[in-house]
Amino acid sequence: MQEHAHNTPGTSTYYYPVVGRKSTGAVFDRLPITDMQKNDPYQFSLFILSYSAVQGVRDPTLAFPIPAIELPAASYFQIAGIHGKPYHEYAGDRKPPLEREADYSENSPKDTLPTPSRFGGYCNHGSVTFPTWHRPYVMLIEQAVGNTADRIAANIEKQYPSEVGKWVPEAKKLRFPYWDWADPATNPKGLPAVLYEDTVEILLPGGKSATVQNPISYYTYQGGIPSDFADVYTAS
Length: 236
Prior knowledge:
The chain contains seven helices and two strands; from the N terminus they run αααααααββ. By secondary structure, the chain is mainly alpha-helical. The protein has one domain: Di-copper center containing domain from catechol oxidase (di-copper center containing domain from catechol oxidase), CATH 1.10.1280. Strands 1-2 form a two-stranded antiparallel sheet. Residues 1-11 have low confidence and may be disordered.
């Protein structure tokens, strides 16, 4: 992939501004994940498929094409890395080559002193600005997943004429779901199965269903575990 000198719209293959879900026709709610799974099967299926896609996972048994991510910055690895490790520069807002330097260096006093290191990724943990920082961060993953869902839905309707009007409108409505840990139902029911089971059932064209890898439950590193992820052992 060619790298350009200036990180401005139209001149960089890395430029990925956070704009949220634009051009969807209206404002739609973020739904509880359990409600989406139960009441909105099209949205839920598109969410699972698109969340898997940004993680670099594609089920080979599916009969319709799953598109690649738009840009490196739209990948799960890059977006999740903003929150903490690996301590690398985010691909969506790179410095020009002449100005580039690592955001973190184990040999740099600015990152290693005082002890412990002051750097913990881009996230404003332990700061009053955390809520305002976190809002665009959620918009970013929602944007990556939603834009991918739009393309998956278009592929489905193109390949299956009888499905026209079923998937594309639901993709427009799709927003990143949530789980409310403070809901009173959490105490008796515990963690919903969709958050920890390794596989999940989704809807397919023609009213069929399939069991696929659950991208909410775990993430498989593409290309191996980053070098700055170390095993931590504690005495028992």
